[in-house]
Amino acid sequence: MLMNPAYGDPGLVVLPIALVSVLAGVFFFLRLVRNEVVTFGNTLTRFEVTHTLPHLSLHVFYMDTSMMVLIVYISMPLVVVLISAGSLIGTGSYRVPFSTPLFVCVYCFIAPTWLGTAIIRALFKTGVQW
């Protein structure tokens, strides 16, 4: 279906962009998991060497400006604005829906895991065992 003119605009534009966005989401999720494992290993090594637990540094003017954190800082308010705009269009209410935090949890944590397992199963051609 990808890049097939017989399917029209969805085959030429929408499906390739959707495929790139799905793969980007899986890549960033796997990168996040890897970085958390490395950070945990570094913290464990620091604890073994110094025998002290790391403490949180809460400076008022400190903001992590790594690209991954900036993407999160930008995308999370954008998701809330888009959900609110959809709610305004659908219901006429200016309130943020109660289900927004649930959507964010599902979208940020469950969906990348599901997509990752779907990609692994597709690559290794393993079927779902019901």
Short description:
This protein has helices at 8-50, 67-91, 100-124. It is mainly α.
What would you say this structure looks like, in words?
The protein is mainly alpha-helical. It contains three helices and no strands. Helix 1 crosses helix 3 (100-124). The radius of gyration is 20 Å and the shape is extended. The two termini are 28 Å apart. The model has no long low-confidence stretch (mean pLDDT 78).
Separation of termini?
Answer: 28 Å
Largest sheet: none
- Radius of gyration over C-alpha positions, nearest whole angstrom: 20 Å
**Helical content (DSSP H or I, runs of 4+):** over 70%
For the residues shown, what is the average pLDDT? 78
SSE order, one letter for each helix or strand: HHH
Helices, by number, come to 3
User: Count of DSSP E strands?
Assistant: 0
Q: How are the SSEs placed, and which strands pair?
A:
Elements: H1 8-50, H2 67-91, H3 100-124
Helix pairs in contact: 1-3
List keywords for this structure.
single chain, 130 residues, mainly alpha, 3 helices, 72% helix, extended
